[in-house]
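**Reference record**
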Amino acid sequence: MTGLPVKGALAMSAETLAVESDFFAPRTAIDDLLFAFLTEKAQTAPVPGQSALILMLRDFISGGKRVRPLLCVTGWIAAGGAG
């Protein structure tokens, strides 16, 4: 059987995990920021019923795919962007 030795395969796997972790970090930060922002807006909504609408919006977008931002981050990384 040919291929990478086990040690090399483990190192490659750890590298892949590091890249994947960095890849999803912006998404997690954005999700947290949106959740906190919408929660605060719901708590301070001046119009009756507005708070329920804001909470519904918050729940609707949480965990959403948001493909466009994911593609932007992917393009940035592919072009050699860092940070």
Q: What stands out?
A: Residues 41 and 54 are 7 Å apart (CA to CA).
